[in-house]
Amino acid sequence: MRKVYLDHNATTPVHPEVVKAMLPYFSERFGNPSSVHSFGQEAKHAMDEARGAVATAIGAKRDEIVFTSGGTEADNIAVTGVTSALSNKGRHIITSTIEHHAVLSTCQHLASMGFELTELPCDGHGIVDPQSVREAVRKDTVLITIMHANNETGVIQPIEEIGKIALEHGIVFHTDAVQSLGKLPLDVNALGVNLLSVSSHKLYGPKGVGALFVRRGTPLAPSTFGGHHERKRRAGTENVSGIVGFARAVELATLDMEARQGRVLQLRRKLEEGVLSTIPNVRLNGHPTKRLPSTASLCFEFIEGESLVLSLDMEGVAVSSGSACTSGSSEPSHVLLAMGVPPAIAQGSVRFSLGTENTESGVDYVLDVLPKIVERLRVMSPLFRQSGTCVGEGTAG
């Protein structure tokens, strides 16, 4: 059976060059970077070099990079660190309804602890209006956190405009760029952010490592205690092998990025056009152009996305019914609901996220098996029978 992996927003395979870079740090270069002897200093040097590589990729300074266990921890440190440091100044947070749960759940937890939270809506394309950010700003606002590119729809937010608003009002601004690094050019100065979260395993690096950009002078209270690691921002012995692998993955992902992502975009367009032209009653979610080149979110009416995911898996095709972090949930995507997608239609959502190793023949294979699966599931669906639509009727849209 053919295998086609189209769930790169969930995770990616580790690049062979990344594995090669990591291997010595599991064996002969095993030192603790906090140790003063040569073994430790060798590990520290490797970590410093990695810090520089990540910083270069986003236009930051080396000492502005804090290594974490991944994007979720980076988001948590940013949100809780700023609000804790500035709680005497104000207790109001601005975020959006389409954030990853690493941000949204953290903000909601703080709201349960006495902070005030404004969750901004998005339009039908999944874009947050910068004017709504401006109107939400208050004298006691201490943090704005809006993601760069959505993990479910791939929609890119107007971060530069929001950054200018935050700067104008002297408010700390954080963005979750976990899905952006390696797919879009990132420059923390052009974006106007104080903090930016990234993750390794989304760009062919190892799992269990990420980073948080913290602009010099940004108030940030530590979230863990017990050591002076990462400039006292995150206690605990660093994952040296993972950090080295992360840095190598960043270097590879940002090398000839425009050409590689252009090829991914062509494959995504082929997939979308093929689905929409052959399967009726399909809805494309998100802005038609302001999206990651790799991501296509589609709603297949009258069937459940989870059933479609499992059926495709039986044919060797890996996709997702939404965010990997909420897999197994029977609830419709909070992102699609925020975009105004009716719950019954949102239940039929599937995310196709492509990577650099995907091929045209792989897309052709998906376009061959997918219509048959959709037709079979719709024949069994009570919703489809109640609609009075016959198999093969209707128009995609």
Quick description:
With 397 residues, the protein is an alpha/beta fold.
How would you explain this protein's 3D organization?
- The structure is a single chain.
- By secondary structure, the chain is of the alpha/beta class.
- It has two domains: 4-11 and 256-387, Aspartate Aminotransferase, domain 1; 16-254, 3-Layer(aba) Sandwich (Aspartate Aminotransferase, domain 2).
- It contains 15 helices and twelve strands.
- The chain has helices at residues 16-22, 38-58, 71-85, 101-112, 130-136, 159-169, 188-191, 229-232, 240-254, 257-278, 305-314, 334-338, 343-346, 360-380, 382-387, and strands spanning 4-5, 65-68, 92-96, 116-120, 141-145, 172-176, 195-199, 210-214, 282-285, 295-300, 317-318, 349-353.
- The strands form three sheets. It has a seven-stranded mixed beta sheet, sandwiched between helices.
- Helix 1 (16-22) runs antiparallel to helix 9.
- The chain is globular.
- The two termini are 31 Å apart.
